[in-house]
Amino acid sequence: MKRFGIIAALFLMLLGYSNKVSAQFFQDEPNMKGKITTGGGFAFGLNFHTLNLAIAPQVGYRILSPWEVGIRGIYNLNCNFAYRRYYHYIGFSPYTNCQIFRGLFIHAEYENLYGFARLNQESAGGEWYRSVFVGGGIRSTSYGGGYFIMLLYNLSWDYNKFQTDWLYPYGSPLVIRVGFCF
To answer: Which range in 3-7, 79-83, 146-150, 151-155 is most confidently predicted, on average pLDDT?
Structure first.
């Protein structure tokens, strides 16, 4: 119950910062081109010994005005130059989201991610990771483009697997995503 309270408090803080959002419900488009959405996210992090690079393009289709389904591609690279460890994650994630009120939406997705590593220039094997994410967010759109911020909870996150599997892709069940949409 405490975890739910923390998630709700973070979500309400996010809404407080976004009170000037001018997003409205998507208008119904008569042709297929107006119902296709594109976008995604990317990340870049660099410090003294590590590099993190992530690219996640997505494409979706608005079945109804507020309801969208789609697929997201994923590539994530983590490099630790001091130990010569390179972790690659590649996969896809079908998703659905539904706008509930003026830019607020709920989101669910099923992620299939293959992780493999290279240690000291040699392959160290790989493994499939499957995760189910649920959560919500806020989207601001204007003039055909915009951004979104999501707070998701990984229902498949396992603390024991995180402690024993050095290739496990998530260090926490909470995931914050920021991206763009067109």
So the answer is: 151-155
Other residues' Cβ atoms within 10 Å of the Cβ of residue 42: 13
How confident is the model over 62-114, as pLDDT tens digits? 898 789 999 999 999 989 888 788 899 999 999 999 999 888 999 999 999 99
3-state secondary structure of 12: helix
What Å distances lie between residue 66 and 6, 29, 36, 102, CA to CA?
28, 12, 13, 10
Q: What is the dihedral of CA 26, 95, 156, 119, to 10 degrees?
A: -120
Query: 33-181 maps to which CATH number?
Result: 2.40.160
First to last CA, the chain: 37
Residue pair 105/99 in contact by the 8 Å Cβ criterion: yes
Distance, C-alpha 116 to centroid of its chain: 20
Contacts of 19 (CB under 8 A, 6+ apart): none
Domain chopping of the chain, boundaries: 33-181
Residue identified by tokens 């293959």 is: 114
